[in-house]
Amino acid sequence: MSRTAGSSGKKTLAAIREAGLDLVHEHGFEAMSLRQLAARVGLQPGSLYNHIETKQDLLFDLIHNHMVTLLASIDAELEGIDDPLERLKAFIAFHLTYHIERKREVFIGSSELRSLEPKNHRKIVALRKSYEERLYEILEQGCAQRLFKIEDIRVSTYAILAMLTGICTWYDAKGRVDRKTLIDIHTRLVLQGVLK
Amino acid sequence: MSRTAGSSGKKTLAAIREAGLDLVHEHGFEAMSLRQLAARVGLQPGSLYNHIETKQDLLFDLIHNHMVTLLASIDAELEGIDDPLERLKAFIAFHLTYHIERKREVFIGSSELRSLEPKNHRKIVALRKSYEERLYEILEQGCAQRLFKIEDIRVSTYAILAMLTGICTWYDAKGRVDRKTLIDIHTRLVLQGVLK
DNA sequence: TTTATAAAAACGATCATACGTTCGTATTTA
DNA sequence: TAAATACGAACGTATGATCGTTTTTATAAA
Predict the structure, then answer these.
(1) For B35-61, what is each residue's pLDDT tens digit?
(2) How far is it, in rounded angstroms, from Cα B54 to Cα B66?
(3) Whole-model pTM?
(4) Domain A7-52 carries which CATH code?
(5) How many CB pairs under 8 A join A and B?
(6) What CATH number should be reported for the domain whose range is B8-52?
(7) Which bases of strand D sit closer than 7 A to a protein CB?
(8) Three-state secondary-structure class, residue B15
(9) What CATH code would you report for A54-194?
(10) A177 touches chain B (CB under 8 A)
(11) Would you say B70 and B131 are in contact if contact means Cβ atoms under 8 Å apart?
């Protein structure tokens, strides 16, 4: 056989990414096989190589894509907000909303960094650092304006991020707590910890 | 060849567990091979089966062992403390201290639950639930005695656990912040969030 | 509008290597 | 003398990646 009628590179790549997210999430990157991936997409194993360079490249693509989108989104969200307190509230609401809908990406982006080649690993860590700085700067600015009182801004940054991200591992959208309530509770928790 | 001089079941099993923690942490459970494991311990692959039932059994053993020890330790730690505020402080200090020294176990205990057979999965989730209840009950008791003021005890339980556990993924024992400072900062953060 | 042609996207076979587990056997320890 | 511990060979199956080939699609000239 050969090229299938109606086949399109864009659609196939999107399907590969989607199935890739699922499989890495389910089995871990090293344990996921390209044969499984091809089967889910409806291809022969060799055909994947019309769309990806290597298996490693696919992993990097998945994580990189997530991080770049995350950064662009938070910047768009904070744009035009000057008051540190308002920026902090916006950050919390955004972070929860965004991460709750991307459990697979969050999981992969933390548990599979180990499987990235050094060069790729460095790039992702740099992007993550960049995201952390968004929160760090908000806290710093709030302290400078004497709105916040924070013992250790660096540690608080990590503590807040850990709390907000970790919640996504158990949050059940169909559960007792709706999204708005979740955001309200966490906003209050964080503010109580940083407000003067 | 055959049985090696000086070989002992207890020591070999301990070595298998230790190397197992390393390998699952480095590669993920499915991707870790029993051949790698045997090589690290200094055995032939088949010899592992004098000490473990199956690969799945090894994973369950690693996680189960961690959870059981965790539960016994927190109970020992809280024993004899009645005041909810003191219990909460003890919980925070214990949780941080214990988890910082067991990064591999924490990582595996959350990222590799997916690889447990349903029966084993249920057992581990029950143990984890049991640990979560220790904190939940402290918060509940504190609210009942009107020491704490908490909007949603369940959500706060998860938020606090997420914060305290998440911190272990980046904390560097050789870094700027020493352990006592870390505990102080987090104690203050949590207390500000729950105290009336 | 038709036709020529290059690029894109799929197939199926193939490579050497690695997988978890079982088994019969040999040696050491209790 | 029996149990514990290790070896080494073997089982069928799966691995990531490459390759030559074939068909479809897109582009642009006629």
Answers:
(1) 999 999 999 998 999 999 999 999 999
(2) 19
(3) 0.93
(4) 1.10.10
(5) 105
(6) 1.10.10.60
(7) 4-10, 14-26
(8) helix
(9) 1.10.357.10
(10) yes
(11) yes
